[in-house]
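Deliverable D5.2: sample structural annotation.
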Amino acid sequence: MTATVKTVSPLIALNDRGRAVIAGTGFKVHVLAGYHRFEDMSADKLAEAFPHLTKAQIYAALAYYYLNKAEIDAELNRFQAEHKAALKEQANDPFVERLRKAKAQKRASSA
């Protein structure tokens, strides 16, 4: 089964789930937008972090983000809320607590 891709611009396409991706890569625009928004990464910093992407691809992704900012920000906010909820849930998980203790003991014994 082949994925359906709709071209939005020469460098941006929509995948079969309707998410904006960098054409020919499958790399999701919201990933770059998240680093740009939450980590305050410039296009140059993004290019360093993702050397497989060209600056043209990064600028195209950021342009798409700013043209669709409300929609992508809503998606990023949803992802952030889900992540925080998962971390909170993990904090109360006895299994995760046992793993943390075991990791701390291992570090203490190797120091």
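Annotation notes: Helices lie at 29-38, 43-49, 55-67, 69-91, 94-110. The radius of gyration is 19 Å.
The annotation will be released with the project's public dataset once the embargo ends.
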